[in-house]
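FORM 7B - TANDEM STRUCTURE REPORT

SECTION 1: FIRST PROTEIN
SEQUENCE AND C-ALPHA CELLS:
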Amino acid sequence: MNSKKLFLATSAVAMAACSATAMAQSSASTTAKIKNSQPGSNPGLQAGVLTVTTANNAANLAGAIGSIALGGNGVVAGGLNMKRFALANNGKTGAAAAPGGSPWNVWGAASRSNVAYNFTPLQSSGKVEVFLAGVDYTLDNNMVIGLAVARDDSDIDLTFSGGKLSGKGYTFSPYLGVPINKNLAFDATLGFGRSDIDTQVTGNGVAITGRTKNDRTIGTLGLTYRENIGALTLSARGAYINVNDKLGAYVLSNRTLVADGKVDLSQVRLTGQAAYTIDAFTPYVSLTYVNDIKRPDQAAMQVNSSGSFISAANDRDAWTVGLGFRFMIDRSVYGGFQYSKENGRSEVKNENYQFNVGARF
C-alpha cells in the first residue's frame, strides 16, 4: 500500500514537473515570438522588407534625375519611367524638354513593391507602396535643382509569428542634376524622412501592440551616359546609394521595453539599358547589378527546443531585370509602366511595379 502511494506521489511530481517545463517552454516561445516580431530586433528582417525597398526607390529617383539632366527626352538606365511637365510661364506650356518651355517643372510617379523575407525563423511577406511627386528648376546652364516628396505605405505579414507590421511616412529629397555634356550627366540626392511603424502579435491569447518611429536618411551619387542611334537609345549608369534607418526604442502594450535598432545599407549599382522608339511608343529592357558593400548581417537563430540553429544567407549580390514602356497620346497625355524583379538573393524577394501618367497644361 505504501509502495502504491509512493508511486502515485512520484507520478504526480513527475507530471507537475513536465507540465511546468512545458509551460516554461511555451512562455519562452511566446516571449521570443513577440521579441522577434519587432523589426529592430532583427536587422535581416528590417533590411529585407523595409530598407531594401527604400534603396530601390532612392535608386529610381536618382536615375530619373540623370534623365532630367540630359533633357528628359529618352528613357535612361536605372531611373523612374516618368515624364515631366512644364509649369505655365508667360503663357508657355508643354513638356519640360520642349524648346522655349518653362524652367519650372513638375512630375509624378507611383510604385508598388511585393517583398518577402524567406529566412525560415523570420519568414514574412507583404507590400510597400510609394507615391512620388517633385518640382524642379532648370538654370541657364541647364543644371537642374529640385525637391521630391515621397509617401510610403507598408503592409507586412509576419508569417513566422502570425503578426503584422505596418508603416506610413514621408521622405523629402532635394536633388541636383548636372549635364557634363550632351551624353553624360551627374546627379545627387539627399533625403530625410520619418515613418510611423506599428506592430501587432498575439501572445497567450492577447494582442500585443507597439508603435515606434523610423527616422531615415538617404544619399545617392550617380553618373548616367546616354547615346541615341536613330530610334535606338543605349544608356548606362553607375550609382552609389546609402540608406540609414533608425528605429526608436518603445514600450509594447504588455509593458515590454523594445530597444532601438539601426540598419545602415550602402550599395553600388551598375545598370545597362536599351530602348527603341516606335512613333509614340518606347519599349525598353534593363539589367542592373547590385552589390551591398555595407549591411548588417542577420544572426543565426534557434529553430526548435532541441537547440538547433539555422544561419541566414545574408546574400550581398543581386541582379535586377527590368521591362517597361513609355507612351504618348495626342501629344498631350504621357505615361509609362515598368516591371522589375531582383534575382540572386536566396532569402529576399523584391519585385516592383512603377506607373506614371500626366498631361500638358
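SECTION 2: SECOND PROTEIN
SEQUENCE AND C-ALPHA CELLS:
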Amino acid sequence: MKRNSLLILLLSILMVLSPALCAFAESETIDNTGNDDGQQEAVVNLIEEDAPATVEEPVAEEETEKSSEEEAAPEEVVQEEPSVLRSGAGWSDDGNYYYDENGDPLKGWQEIDGARYFFNENTGLKKTGWLKQVDEEGVVYWYFLGEDGRLVTNYWASDSKGLCWIGPDGYMIEQTKWIKVGNDWYYIEKGYQVRNKWKKDSKGWCYLGSDGLMVTNDWAPDSKGWCWIGSDGYMVEQNKWLKIGDYWYYIEKGYRVENTWKKDSKGWCYLGGDGRMVTNDWAPDSKGWCWIGPNGYMVETSGWKEIDGDWYYLEKGYRAQDRWLKDSTGWCHVGEDGRMDKNEQIPDSKGWCWVDENGYQVVDQWVVERGNYYYYVDSSGYQVENKKKYYIGAKNGYLAGYYNFDEDGRCIDENGRYTNPPRKTN
C-alpha cells in the first residue's frame, strides 16, 4: 500500500513534466492498481483537474487579453473626471459640472438658479452650442446653449448657413414666416433669417436689409434702381415728389429718378446722380450747362452771374464757354469752364491778347507776367512780337522809347536778355 502511494506521487510529477510520460504513467498506474479502486479514482481526478492548465494554455491567454480589452473600452467613452471634485451641491471650479448634495454630477436637462442647462448623460459635462434632440414621435428639435451653458430663448443663433431664430422654448423655429423682435420685423425661411432680399405679401413689396431688418423710411435697391420704402415697410409704388430730410426726390412707379430733367408748373428742375433735386449748382443737358437756382429750378435768363467769387455769363439759362463777350465795359473772355478769365494771356486767330485783373481786354499798355516778363499790347489789343526798336510812348508809368521783343512777345535788351522797361522818375 505504501509502495503504491509512492508510485502514484512519482507518476504525478512525471505528468507535469511531459504529456507523453503522463499518458504512459496513466497506463502503468491503472495496470498496477487494478486491485485498488480508490487509488485509481484518485489518479483520474488528478489528471482531469491539471490537464486543461497545460493543454489549453494558449487559448486561455487569448481569452485573457480579449477580456482585458473589453473591460478597457468603456473608459475611452467616459469623459475624464473633473480636475476638482466637490462634496455637496454646486458647480465644479472649472464651471463644467454641477454636483448634487451627494457629490454626484448632474446629468441631462437641469434647472439651476432659474436657468436651464444640459449635462452629458454619461459624463455630466455641461453642454454649450447646438444640441440636437429627437422626441418619441421622431420630431427633431435644435436647442442652443450659450457659452455659459444656459439655454437661450428669443435669440439669434448662428451656424454655417446663417442666423436662426431661437423661440421662447429654447429651440430653433424651423418655419417660414414673419417674426417681430422688439419693434422690428424679420422674415425667416425654414428658420433662417432672410437678408438683402425683397419679399411680397398681400400689402405689397418690402425689403429685408443687410441686418435682416424690414427696411422702413429708406431706399432699397433692385435690378432696376432704387425704391423708396415707406414708414409701413412697403415700397411706395407711385409717381410723386418726396421730401426726405432736407432734399427733394422724384419717384416714378416707386423708382427714384436720377440724372434726369423734370418739368412742372414752376419750370425745369434736375435730379442728380443721387436722385436729389439739384439746387445752386450746374446741371447738364444736350445743349450745355444750366444754372439751377436755390429753389431747384433752372434760371432761364441772360446776364452775368457771380457764383462762389467767379463770374459766369448765362444766355437763356446756358453757360457761355470758351468765347469772347462784350458788354458796356469792354471785351472779356470766359474759359472752357465758363469762368471769366482774369490776368490771363488769351489766344485767338490773329494773335495773343491779355485780360486784366477785372477780366477785360488790355489795350495799348504794358503787361507784367508774374513780375518776371514784360509784354506790350498795342492799340489793336494784341501783344507785340518779334520786333526790334519798336517805339512805345510813355504808358502806365513807363518811359517812352524804343524796345525789342522776342517771338513770344517778351521784352528783351540788345543782347537778347529779358529786361524791364525803364519806369518814370518823379
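SECTION 3: OBSERVATIONS ON SECOND PROTEIN
The helical segments are 2-17, 19-32, 37-55, 57-77.
Residues 239 and 252 are 4 Å apart (CA to CA).

SECTION 4: SIGNATURE
Preparer initials: ____
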